[in-house]
Amino acid sequence: MKEAPVGSASETAHWVFCERCKSAIWGRRFERLLNVCEHCGRHSRLNALERLNQLLDPGSADPLDLVVGGGDPLGFVDSKPYTERLAEARASTGLSEAVVCTRGAIRGTPVVVAVMDFRFLGGSLGAAVGEIIVQAADEALRTRTPLLLVTASGGARMQEGAIALMQMAKTTAALAPLGEAGVLTISLITDPTFGGVAASFATLSDVIVAEPGARLGFAGPRVIELTIGKKLGHRFQTAEFLLERGLIDMVAQRSRLRTMLGRLLAAGSNYAVRTGPLSPAAPGGAVVHAGELDDGDPWELVKRARELSRPTTLDYISLLTSDFEELHGDRIGGDCPAIVGGIARFDGRWVMVIGHQKGHTAAELTARNFGMATPAGYRKAGRLMRIAAKLGLPIITLIDTPGAYPGASAEENGQAVAIAENLRLMASLPVPVVAVITGEGGSGGALGLAVADRVYICSNAVYSVISPEGCAAILWRDAKAAPRAAAALRLRPPDLLRLGVVNGVVREPAEGAGADPAEAARRIAAAVSAAIRELATLPPQELIAQRRNALRQHTVSEQRAEVMSR
After folding, report:
1. Hey, which of 73, 366, 380, 423 has its CA 20 to 30 A from 244?
2. CA separation for the pair 376, 380 (Å, rounded)
3. Beta bridge partners of 397
4. 405 and 369 Cβ atoms separated by less than 8 Å
5. Between the CA of residue 438 and those of 110, 301, 359, 450, what are the distances in Å?
6. At 325, is the secondary structure helix, strand, or coil?
7. In whole angstroms, how far apart are CA 174 and each of 103, 167, 184, 562?
8. Are 99 and 114 in contact (CB under 8 A)?
9. 18-58 pLDDT, tens per residue?
10. How many C-beta atoms lie closer than 10 Å to residue 41's C-beta?
């Protein structure tokens, strides 16, 4: 935005003009909009102090007392000496360096914040900036306080040569102990974030948030265009471009930042582990852990499990939880829409909830790939599980998929490996894991989210090694034999309970979950809540040992075979 004074010199009112759409906005209104253009939505750059004032709770800022050296290690001179450039930057910004660090709070949760200022030599990463970031990380580790990094940089500071280059490794190493100690890290990417900052601490946080239109990348667009000899699209390297490719978690409007960051920080902090009332107890007989259930026709049950009226994972998340913040991407290059997940509040505690997502219409099903996840989906789920393990959050998974996506692209990108890695990861998670099969539990695609301490299945859901159609085509060589295959596969909840594959069956309302989603969700909530409360009392190593021991019990004995043959 560019400012233009209005009226006499004594007046303080002014207009600002958007650099993108050229619209004029009254200055005071522009400030109320947090420096965002009301016409085109462009998020104008903020300096470090403006950013802190917008993010932190009023009166909470407590600047860190840092000891940072500085200087000119190379005696560098271009059109003017580096020392002169430093002096000019300090005079024009009022800052000692390109980053400002402080303790503070966001929506009541303590945080250590390091905010870069692009005005200071393009926010470049030099020895002093690197040292400040390291000391901010040290403070977060010492106090077990979440660390928020707000980035704005053109890259490493050329005037410091290889010393600047080494700051990439130095700052990266400083974040490692935070991961080991379970301290949450968040990056807020602002425009622009390039070079050495992008390739170090900016992209290593647990959660990466970007403002709309913010550009992030290692090489700048001009360098890339010169290298490859062609123009790049206007969306290239923007936050929206990166979100589609699974490289960041979310794009957040500036007006949402405090709310969103407050939730993430609370989830990653010991200050808000449990809040709110407990979930109501399940109605009598809603959860069956042993004994007989109604044995309906298997093929009819398969058809009920596939009904489009059944609640999806996102439906259940809205009914079961509050304050949900969806996290995206596998950080490799994909964000599978068939798996959704994020941090939410459930039963008075923060949890990580992950599940397959289908839809209620043909368009929704197509957009979500019919709930069939790609390798990127399983890798995203695995990434969110690792965050939960780091922060000590229980994990809830909701399973509803015909199976993993069977396309050529999935095989080219390692579908089998992605699922296998999730199975190994889930067997070793040091936090409670509760899985609920809400519809179709199809093969390894379902199991990729279903290795858990407690596995429940809804009474109109199914769980099998293969779909009845697939089994019929392979073994009977006739797709019309699907009903016969459904019976042979023993995929009904009563069968699964007798086999010991599930720990309990959640009875759905009389007309099914689709007829009364709220009641269906209440019954699931009661089952999951009771399980988490029980599991949360166990030390991590005992939790893992019990889970692994339970997995070893999945074998065939003469006694079990006799029970199933009846």
Report:
1. 423
2. 6
3. 354, 435
4. yes
5. 38, 13, 13, 12
6. strand
7. 18, 10, 13, 59
8. yes
9. 888 888 888 888 888 889 998 898 999 999 999 999 999 99
10. 14
Tell me how many helices (H) and strands (E) the chain has.
22, 20
- The band of 281, judged by pLDDT with boundaries at 50, 70 and 90, is low
Residue 110 CA: distances (Å) to CA of 141, 185, 397, 562: 13, 13, 29, 59
CB atoms within 10 A of CB 545: 12
- Which residues lie closer than 8 Å to 332 by C-beta, 6 or more apart? 246, 376, 379
**pLDDT > 70? residue 270:** no
Return d(Cα 503, Cα 554) in angstroms, integer: 12
Handedness of CA 496, 498, 504, 509 (dihedral sign): positive
224 vs 232: CA distance, rounded Å: 8
State the Cα–Cα distance between residues 63 and 101, nearest whole angstrom.
6
In the chain the first and final C-alpha atoms are separated, in Å, by: 77
- How far apart CA 214 and CA 36 sit, in angstroms, is 13
- How far apart CA 340 and CA 537 sit, in angstroms, is 28
Domains of the chain, by residue range, sit at 1-43, 45-267, 287-565
Beta-carbon-side half-sphere exposure of residue 278 (alpha carbons within 13 Å):
11
Domains 45-267 and 287-565 share a fold: yes
pLDDT, tens only, 499-544: 999 999 999 998 999 999 999 999 999 999 999 999 999 999 999 9
Coil/strand/helix, residue 200:
coil
User: Which of the pair, 2 or 295, is modelled with greater confidence?
Assistant: 295
pLDDT per residue over 284-319, tens digit each?
A: 567 887 767 777 899 999 999 999 999 999 999 999
What CATH number has the domain spanning 45-267? 3.90.226.10
How distant is the alpha carbon of residue 232 from its chain centre? 28
Give the whole-angstrom CA distance, residue 472 versus residue 481: 5
> CA–CA separation, 497 vs 154, rounded Å?
58
CA distances in angstroms from 517 to 102, 312, 452, listed in the order given: 46, 10, 24
Would you say domain 287-565 falls under CATH 3.90.850.10?
no
Rounded (to 5) percent helix, strand, coil in the chain: 40, 20, 40
